[in-house]
Fold this protein.
Amino acid sequence: MAPQKPFKDREEVKKEIRIWFIGSLVLELLGLLLALIGIIADALDRTLGLKTMSWFLLAIFFSVSAAGPLVMSAVFKSLYARARRFFLFNRSFEVALRFEKESYIRTHMQKK
């Protein structure tokens, strides 16, 4: 579940990206594994616990449900990029202010 509080730093956003991406990867691999079991069961003409169509339906369910965490991962990547852009903007603003301050001091020191 997505956190209800704003992020304090970019490392927290990176951690959330990793968590949601791994969740999506696990669900997708589970879907592929279930599809493989369905294919093997159909090739052997046996029921490996469930009928072949049930394995395929489970594979489809898990593969589709992997989209949710993948979307959350994309949302957090967007937040990460926005936080990075904000950080870079603030950093460049600080540099510009420092430059203005130094040039102001140089200008007034030369007059005296």
